[in-house]
Amino acid sequence: MISDNLEQIRADIHRLEDAHQRTAGDVTLLAVSKKKPVEDIRQAIDAGQTCFGENYADEGVEKITAIANESIDWHYIGHIQSNKTRLIATHYDWVQGVERAKILQRLAQHRPDHLPPLNICLQVNIDAEDSKSGCSPEQLMELAAQTDGKPEIILRGIMAIPAPQTDLAAQRAAFAQLATLYRSLQARYPQVDTLSMGMSGDMEAAIAEGATMVRIGTAIFGSRD
Ligand SMILES: *Cc1c(COP(=O)(O)O)cnc(C)c1O
After folding, report:
1. Which end of the chain is more exposed for a tag (fewer CB within 10 A), N or C?
2. Which residues contact 47 (CB under 8 A, 6 or more apart)?
3. Looking at residue 130, what is its pLDDT?
């Protein structure tokens, strides 16, 4: 049951906040609903979940349109193709995973005037993996500066997917580096309040190191195959 899973994960998050000296309620749970039907999302909404992450632009827009609920926040967390920026900027509330200046520019250009600014998290490739998206830590401030003077978008923070590690200490080391980058971004951009890191397999390490948002799919909705 989706509602039972949500209840369990919320309890886990509270326990981990407490165990790692985090303020209760600091960590937002983003429910990753990619490849899951609208019915599953409705069940999660009925169980009190208010923010959802989608990886495929068109699939997500179909669900956003079907659900048509103004109080839900929709996060686009997938790879961003430049020919999808209009669709994404029109339908989503957040875009996590921006890694290039050109994409920022197109999202700003395509954000409709009647909507509030599109919330942006920049993706950092913390392990310099060839297979992963994201800017390098060294490029982060330069990329962030590309949000200056664009009122259609607002920089909210960082998103990252570190290389999979099974050992808690190794997981924490990557998240700690991200937390340092996050603090330097916050020093320059006071509105920055989102450090999106941690998934079903590394949530504890992420919360221990300061995540403010964890992105959980499988543990809520079950496997996706
Ligand atoms: C799929 C996905 C998740 C959720 O992963 P689970 O292992 O199912 O919890 C989180 N973040 C991103 C970017 C994803 O693509």
Report:
1. C
2. 2, 3, 6, 7
3. 77
Cα 106 to Cα 49: distance, rounded to the nearest angstrom: 30
Whole-number Å distance between alpha carbons of 207 and 55: 23
128 by Cβ neighbours in 10 Å (0-12 / 13-18 / 19+) ranks as exposed
User: In the structure, what pLDDT confidence band is assigned to residue 188 with cuts at 50, 70 and 90?
Assistant: very high
Is the pTM of the predicted complex or chain greater than 0.85? Answer: yes
The structural domains of the chain, with segments of one domain joined by +, span 2-221
Cα 209 to averaged position of ligand 1 atoms, centre (Å): 19
CATH number attached to the domain at 2-221:
3.20.20.10
Q: Give the torsion sign (CA, 105, 109, 111, 115).
A: positive
Q: Whose CA is nearest to atom 13 of ligand 1?
A: 77
Out of 33, 56, 199, 221, give the residue to mutate to test ligand 1, the one with the largest number of ligand atoms within 8 Å of its CB. 199
